[in-house]
Design brief:
Number of helices: 4
Order of helices and strands: HHHHEEEEEEE
CATH topology: Immunoglobulin-like
CATH class: Mainly Beta
Structural class: alpha+beta
Shape: elongated
Length: 168
């Protein structure tokens, strides 16, 4: 199973507090990988930050899906029944996609039973540097945020020529 950078982040954001220990065993210490990697410092820092955020506040509402539509295209689907388009804000803050919802529900109404939870929420997804948010749409109580991973993996073998050092 191969997981690209965005897939790793989406996997991590779906974890709950109970699986935090599993996460720490999957990504023990960056020192384990340092002898074999170059230039992944930021990735290791992001993985650790994401793991820490999960441990602190693992949200479970509203429910959402993350689907891979094509090789480098994704959609986050979030169930936001009871929210108007104007009640939801989608922003990018650094490497975080933040989706906030503030309901203008009138609490003064006399409910006999209130089963639709349209309370305020905030969902945060850590995204890779090369992931671009294309657009967002609301269809039948589902918010869809379309993303594209602009990073293309290097699939060809490239031979590097070795030069003679200039003697000075």
């Amino acid at each position: 199973m191969t997981v690209d950078a965005f897939g790793v982040y989406s996997l991590l954001t779906r974890l709950t507090k109970e699986t935090y220990m599993t996460l720490t065993s999957l990504f023990p210490s960056r020192s384990v990988y340092e002898p074999f990697t170059v230039g992944f410092d930021k990735l290791f820092d992001q993985l650790q930050d994401t793991a820490n955020n999960i441990a602190k506040n693992a949200p479970n509402w509203p429910p959402y899906n993350i689907k891979k539509v094509k090789d480098n295209k994704y959609v986050i689907e979030m169930a936001v029944a009871g929210f108007a388009k104007s009640d939801i804000e989608v922003t990018v803050e650094g490497n975080k996609l933040v989706i906030k919802g503030e309901s203008n529900d009138n609490e003064a109404e006399n409910y006999i039973f209130k089963g639709i939870a349209n309370r305020a929420f905030q969902r945060t997804f850590t995204i890779a540097d090369k992931v671009e948010i294309k657009d967002a749409e609301m269809v039948n109580g589902m918010l869809r945020v379309w993303l594209e991973n602009l990073y293309q993996t290097q699939e060809t073998v490239k031979k590097i020529a070795i030069k003679e050092a200039d003697s000075k």
